Amino acid sequence: MAGQQKFPGSADLNKKVAFAALHHQDYRRYFLVSLFSTMGDNIEHVISYWLLVQKFRSPFLGGFAVISHWTPFLFFAVYFGALADRHDCRRVIQASQFLYATVSLTWAILFLTDTIEVWHACVLLVIHGMAGVLWGPGSQLLIHDIVGTEHLQSAVRLNSPSRQMGILFGPAVGGAMML
To answer: What does the mean pLDDT of the chain come to?
Structure first.
């Protein structure tokens, strides 16, 4: 531009790096772990929901599965966000992953022993929904700790495709596993 003085190397200062957050090794790990966690969650949805339909043939339980998954986000997201703000968000994430794993293990035991009842399913579905809402805010806060302010926008932009790929590929993998 006319009237602006150019300094040696000034072009480098304003140059944006594509996918800058991926230049952080810890963010690359976070990106993949988040992708596989979301994918695992969706694999579990497909398999557990299918087994519930086969076992109980209950439209009520099908509706309850969806409501129990998303209602906690509506009512508890702000509170769990405050929890992640006040405490180490890595511990909050670990707690949510522990809940996810416990629910998945319990599904497996109940289905393999053919001892599952409707009330078991309802309790597990609610715990699973709570684990999801517990995980969300902590995982979003963690990216700032990983990449810092400089690459935060890049990390936030990359977070969405990671989640969406997990949501897309999880049911496909779950369906393939059932075949």
So the answer is: 90
Give the HSE-up count for residue 40: Cα atoms under 13 Å, Cβ half-sphere.
Answer: 14
Main-chain dihedrals φ then ψ at residue 87, nearest 5 degrees: -120, 170
Environment class of 118 (CB within 10 Å of its CB; exposed 0-12, middle 13-18, buried 19+): middle
Would you call 86 exposed, middle or buried from its count of C-beta atoms within 10 A (0-12, 13-18, 19+)? exposed
Q: pTM of the full predicted structure?
A: 0.84
What value, to the nearest 5°, has the Cα angle with vertex 84 and ends 124 and 38? 50
Pairwise CA distance, residues 127 & 133, whole Å = 10
Retrieve residue 101's tokens.
């794993």
